[in-house]
Amino acid sequence: MNDKELLKKIKWQLFLLGRFKIPMIGYTGLKLVDLDETKSVVKVRLKRRTKNHLNSMYFGALAVGADVSGGIHAFYFANKYNKKVSFAFKAMECEFIKRAESDCTFICNDGVLVEKSILRSIETGERINEKTFVNVYDSQNELVAKFKLTISVKCK
After folding, report:
1. 23-65, pLDDT tens digit by residue?
2. Distance between CA 54 and CA 11 in Å, rounded?
3. How many domains would you assign to the chain?
């Protein structure tokens, strides 16, 4: 399966996940913009569903974007290695730099780290925990938030 087909498959899986398993993903209407072995890019539009009372992006919408951007590599490598992956977040730290008053782009460059975690889990059969980092940018490409997420993966 080439990268284009894999991206299409993962976008479909993300749609289904948001539709049936994690409705908050579907509710925010986030979009998977780009995904490869090293980087994931997710976009959340600022709209009625994602705004707070200050007309900036609600904390929950920011958390959903960071969750997907930081975790989508688990789906990517599960598909690549044809494995079932049990995946969850164990911890989250966030720093809000400024109010997100426009659409936001979430970028995670830790694909290699997630791949190593999955390969270690395949090898050992154990649950592996790693920290991933997600930066959030507004439409002017200014940093608005930083997330540090502890992912936990186990391959079956």
Report:
1. 999 999 999 999 999 999 999 999 999 999 999 999 999 999 9
2. 31
3. 1
Q: Work out the average pLDDT over 127-131.
A: 95
Residue 139, domain extent: 3-155
Residue 2, pLDDT > 80, answer no
Residue with tokens 């090898």: 123
Instruction: Show Cβ contacts of residue 7 under 8 Å, excluding neighbours closer than 6 positions.
Output: 32, 34, 35
* Amino acid sitting at position 56: S
Looking only at the bridges linking them, the beta strands covering 40-44 and 31-35 are antiparallel
Which single residue is written with the structure tokens 């780009």? 34
Q: Which residues pair with 143 in a beta bridge?
A: 137
CATH code for the domain in which residue 85 is found:
3.10.129.10
Q: What is the dihedral of CA 20, 22, 24, 29, to 10 degrees?
A: -60
Cα–Cα distances in angstroms (integers) from residue 84 to residues 31, 62, 100, in the given order = 23, 27, 36
The dihedral sign for the CA sequence 136, 75, 1, 115: positive
Give CA–CA dist 86/151, Å, rounded: 11
Q: Are 136 and 64 in contact (CB under 8 A)?
A: no
